[in-house]
Design a protein that fits this description.
Layout (H helix, E strand, L loop, with lengths): L11 E4 L2 E4 L18 E4 L3 H14 L10 E2 L1 E2 L7 H17 L1 H4 L6 E13 L4 E5 L7 E8 L7 E3 L4 E3 L5 E6 L4 E3 L7 E12 L12
Antiparallel strand pairs: 1-2, 3-11, 4-7, 5-6, 6-13, 7-12, 8-11, 8-13, 9-10, 9-12
The chain binds fe (ii) ion.
The site of fe (ii) ion has 4 residues, from loops.
Length: 213
């Protein structure tokens, strides 16, 4: 079979020590298809006490990414981790293992699912998040509602226009390819903890330098 000619060829180059594909070649015969995707929704059984501790962490966090990314709200550093956040990540790990057990139970797999990043986002009045997804960076993204006063915007899965109501203690775990956004918020202090999980090589030597081949 003859392969279609790409619009432009992607370049592969060393980027911050990693081999990275520079652009999407954009094949002219590409298709745009819809798929059924699973979203995990769960409520933490002790969210009152958990959220009290997370609120304290959110208060003390450094909001160095505010209004710089797709999140047009206050945003903490990409790698915000505290002992309480660590507990949340362990809960997420359990939820994903319960749902996708057959895949994740392969203990000797060369690649493993790992937390890539986590951050707080604090929305004031009229703050929002642009439509985006986490493809190819992440296998899963998550949003956990820490504080959701009246007027808190939902998380919206854009393609299906599915609105996930902001409720304290609710966890939403979704495939990284899903488009999502947050419409303009109508209150102060809508606070979420968000992050990503991706596949990393177990020995953690992800093509770090040419000599590793
Ligand atoms: Fe996102």
């Amino acid at each position: 079979m003859k392969l279609p000619k790409p619009v432009s060829y992607p370049t592969v180059k060393w980027n911050e020590g990693y081999l990275a594909v520079d652009n999407d070649p954009g094949f002219p015969d590409d298709l745009n298809l819809s798929e059924n995707l699973d979203v995990i929704i769960a409520y933490h059984p002790h969210f009152n006490s958990l959220n009290k501790r997370l609120l304290k962490d959110a208060e003390e966090a450094d909001y160095g990414e505010s209004y710089k990314t797709n999140v047009r709200a206050e945003m903490s550093d990409w790698k915000t981790v505290t002992p309480t956040i660590h507990l949340v990540l362990e809960w997420i790990n359990t939820l994903i293992r319960e749902r996708y057990n057959s895949y994740l139970s392969v203990e000797d797999a060369e690649y493993a699912l790992a937390f890539l990043d986590a951050w707080f986002a604090r929305y004031g009045i009229d703050d929002y998040t642009k439509v985006h997804n986490h493809y190819i960076h992440a296998q899963f993204g998550f949003v956990y509602f820490v504080n959701a006063p009246k007027g808190s915007s939902p998380l919206v899965f854009t393609t299906s226009n599915t609105k996930i109501k902001a409720e304290e203690g609710k966890m939403v775990i979704f495939p990284g390819c899903m488009y999502h956004h947050v419409p303009k918020n109508k209150c102060k202090d809508r606070i979420v903890l968000s992050g990503n999980l991706g596949l990393i090589k177990r020995n953690n030597k992800i093509l770090k330098d040419p000599a590793s081949y």
